[in-house]
């Protein structure tokens, strides 16, 4: 069974994907896989993954064989499935939708021990350009409304395999947080006539207190209401609703500021686990182009969400973003 | 510094509480405290906590001395502070509020090795009656708009001390999830003329597929759009907006169904860590009495939230709630 279900009280869709687990989980996820365990993402083990949908390869090398720097493969245990009609069904007070979507894994390097941020800027650019390319494919599928690119680095950040990788899930609904951002930024635009992200970026660059770093095209900043200690957003300075419309130059500047940010965090906090998430406009909704502004959110994992966060949707952050930004600027 | 800050894009308040950490966290929270470490919650160590605000004591015993079965003490590192005026300030596009509120710890037993659900129903009732009593105190404070009772059981669920305890945070804003539930249930009432929770409970009791257990006054059910595997909601069958108005009989029935639910989960899943959260109407808002319905949400911690959940506000659940409920019914 793979389907999306809507909570009848709050507008929250959940993916119910029974095939992901061969059987119900019975205990907390096992600790990180031992060094000597077989890794399906390593060079020479290409046959252990589903066939690649895209790869950056040495000239003349063959698909699903060695000779690559980056591979994109379908997730072996996908949360959503690519085939089938998108059907929406109602059963009394409950809404559901067929579990249509794509779930892909981006293997960022053939080297098991290489972390993404330690790769050259060229390779990090390659990753983000590949994400752009996949988004441009997904947006042509009329069943798909948005895609989420994300990276879980380290076991405590949710990575089940330690070999550096990230993921894309393309979905038939607009995700909850994106929906809230779209609504909030639309309201702001109606009231102030401008993009709230552009206004934040301009104000923050002027005051400087929450700026971590800048380059010509991007800013890295600690958001005013940071949920997590050392949370950092990476945003293009120029108004841009859709990540997948980024130029090569913009992607390269993103790769540079990402590498710089992770370097600062690693130096200051001893290479913590982290989550990285892309927030970008939904597909086929040109009406949000005036008020939405894509960005990436980077969150070191230093604690864990518990009852208060899950129960109240409320966060307690013990490091004021001004202090976090100052420490990261100096790192 | 203790203040609440509002995200200028989405309506999300965050507590920035720099005093909670003596210094910035630098690594992932340390593993659970060793058995032989001093425990401030044990009998005879009463002087290690701030003075108790309430306790269930043997007749004749003195405050902050042995002879108790349950103690309520202020959190030693409170996220919010009880003193001071509630001020709301605006600075350009940013809103903030003084960090006024209460943060209390409920020490559920003097015995270091006793888990809450293993206590007799009388003691579990005592805990919930104490929560009711604290809520009735907090609601008299005009600065406070809602309170969150929650329990983190086990290190992976966010507990920093292993001695059984729970917490209450009383806040000057309505928490985000509660706000969403209020809005959603209000919309439902306007459309259908009834309480969405009452309708869910009635439908679920009739079909039975997602029912875990029942007693005269309460139902334990796996919600249709469960975010987490084996997520279970405990709800009064009779429409009741405010937990703190519960009768003694209702609280006892809650204690019974809670103990029963944890017993089933422990048997089926090997005593996993869990989070327990109370969802109840905000204080001083009688207008929500018709559409809001208090309940508790119980979530075993079997995995961890990662980029997709934080990035998209989206959950993937690999155990359909019908299967979860069936397995728990049979446990």
Structure characterization notes:
- The structure is a homodimer of 331-residue chains.
- Chain A is 26% helix and 24% strand.
- The N and C termini of chain A lie far apart (48 Å).
- Chain A has a 10-stranded antiparallel sheet with strand order 3-4-7-9-8-13-14-12-11-10, sandwiched between helices. Chain A has a 4-stranded antiparallel sheet with strand order 2-1-6-5, with no helix packed on it.
- Chain A folds into 2 domains: 2-13 and 38-176, HIT-like (HIT family, subunit A); 180-241 and 250-330, HIT family, subunit A (2-Layer Sandwich).
- In chain A, a hairpin with a 2-residue loop joins β5 and β6.
- Chain A has helices at 121-138, 176-192, 196-207, 248-269, 307-312, 321-330; strands at residues 2-6, 13-17, 54-57, 68-74, 88-91, 94-98, 102-107, 146-153, 165-171, 211-214, 218-221, 232-236, 274-279, 295-300, 315-317.
- In chain A, α4 crosses α6 (321-330).
- With 331 residues, chain A is an alpha+beta fold.
- Chain A has 6 helices and 15 strands.
- The interface between A and B is large, with 95 and 94 residues.
- β15 (315-317) of chain A pairs parallel with β2 of chain B.
